[in-house]
Structure formats: C-alpha cells, structure tokens
Amino acid sequence: MRDAILKFPSQIEIGFDIGNKNKFEGAYRNIYICAMGGSAIPGEILAIIRPDLNIYLNSDYRLPSTATTNDLVICVSWSGNTEETIAAYDDAVERACPVIVISKGGILREKAVRQSISVAAMPDENVPARFAVGYMFGALAGILGISDFNVRNINAEALEIKGRDIASEIDAKIPVIYGSYKWRYLAKFWKTLINENAKIPAFWNYFPVLGHNEICQFADRHMRLTPILLRNLDDSPEALKDIKATIAILDNMEYNYTIIDISTGMSVLEQVLNNYILALWTSFYLAKNLGVDPIDTLLVEKFKSYKN
Prior knowledge:
This protein has helices at about 1-5, 10-20, 40-50, 85-95, 105-115, 135-145, 160-170, 185-200, 235-250, 270-290, 300-305, and strands at about 30-35, 55-60, 70-75, 100-105, 120, 175-180, 205, 225-230, 260. The longest helix has 23 residues, at about 270-290. The strands form two sheets. A five-stranded parallel sheet has the order 2-1-3-4-5, with helices on both faces. The chain is of the alpha/beta class. The protein is globular, with a radius of gyration of 20 Å. The two termini are about 30 Å apart. Helix 7 crosses helix 10 (about 270-290). The protein has two domains: about 1-145, Rossmann fold, CATH 3.40.50; about 155-290, Rossmann fold (3-Layer(aba) Sandwich), CATH 3.40.50.10490. This is SIS domain-containing protein. It holds the Pfam family bact-PGI_C. Belongs to the PGI/PMI family. It comes from Candidatus Yanofskybacteria bacterium RIFCSPLOWO2_02_FULL_44_18.
C-alpha cells in the first residue's frame, strides 16, 4: 500500500477529468452525498473546503425526508457494493431526485447504467476506498464544476518519515485525536484510518466541546492514552486558546502528546490533503509496527455477512 499512498496526489487530477465528463449542468438547492466508510471521506473534504455549499452528508439506508427533486444526490461507493449506499440510491431514484454515481463497479454501477443514471466510473484498482480518496474527491469536484483549486503543494513522499515517527510515538497506546471545530473532520479521518489500518482503538473529538467533558479523562495519569492535537496557527484566537489550555493540562498531568501543525501558506484543500496523507502514513507504519495487515478488514466483512 506504500505505492498507493505515494500516488495519492495524481489520483485527484485523474478523478477530476472523469467527474468533469459527468458534470451536472442543472440547478440544485442542496447536495446530498450518500456514502459510507472511506467512500464518505471525499464528501467530508468537500464540506471543509466549500462551507458555502448546502452539503448534507448521508450515511444511512434512506435519504432524509427533506430531500426533494430540487436537490442533487451523489451516491459514492468505491466498490459499488455498499448496502447502505445502494439503498439510498434506490430511494433517490424512487423520489425522482437527480442522481449521479461515483463508483468503480459493483451493483451500484450496474443499476445506474441500467437505469440511465450518470456514472463517474473510477479506475478499477485493487485498493481499499480509504487509499483511493483522491480519485473520488477529484470526481466529486469535477461533477460539481469545482476547478478553482490546486494541489501543487502536496508531496506524499515528503510526509512519509514524519508519519513513521508519529507511529513510533503512538506505539501501543490508544490515540485520542483533537482539532478545532473547523478541522473536526481531520480528527475523524485520523481516528478511522488508525482503526482500519492498525486495528486498534482510537477516538476523536473537537474544540471547544471536549473542554466541557472529555478533558476529564486525563485526570488519571495511568491511562494509556496518547493525545494528538491538530493545530493550525491561522485558526481563530478562541481555538488556539482551547489548544493552549489543553496542552497545559496534559503537561501538568505528565502526558506525552503529539502536536501536528496543519500547514499554513497554502490552500485549504492542500492543508486537508496533506494532513490526510500524513494520517495514511502514520496508520500504515503503526500497522507495520504492530505486525498487522493494514489492508485486511476481516471484521468489517464478517459484520456484513452476519447481516445476511
């Protein structure tokens, strides 16, 4: 999977070209992005970089009751066999909403083709969705005609050593990842990548909420927690004060922690993708250090089989 991480930046341009060929030309009130797991990450990235759009992220079997024919529904499933996304797709078609599919194959793509629904067909690469986020985000941007971004400052190779070092700092402890409200999805990305790739517990939260409850867990110095703080020096003064106060508590309680500064001087998309790639490297090397396969998700497959 190291090669998949290294080629991540090139995925975006390829995905954008595919999506742009399926660009939605109509008007819409809201955008509902239906997806699960790694396939949901592109929509979450879009929500970070384009807060001006009315984006609703839907990870359920049905669309919300508020969705109408005036709304655009984009169903994203890397495999094309995600049960929840297929069900949401069926619901959208039944309601006569405009629908576009992003997928590399499977049942979802077959249905869309059969029903003359536009499909942004992803490259048929044998990697998990979390390693193919660049393709799907690029396609999403192309479909929506969002081209005012650049990825010149994304260098996956340059982040590898830092990711390996953070993995060594985590060791066998339980990561708890925190960021400000603006960057909350980044904390979530770290958590889920560590869960799936390294097969260990990890948790996430965001400021200022965690300062009113979760901060209490650090009262016990013997908790095997390793806090990871995602910090952007251009963030609001209030957010920076929250992080500063948390650092003071962690120092007082003698916790080892890691501060990851979100790069400044670049676009929000570049900040997000660089941080995501760093999380990929960290979880990849953490898996290697723990002697587990970062690709295997046996329990996810068992979960699916037990539902049938």
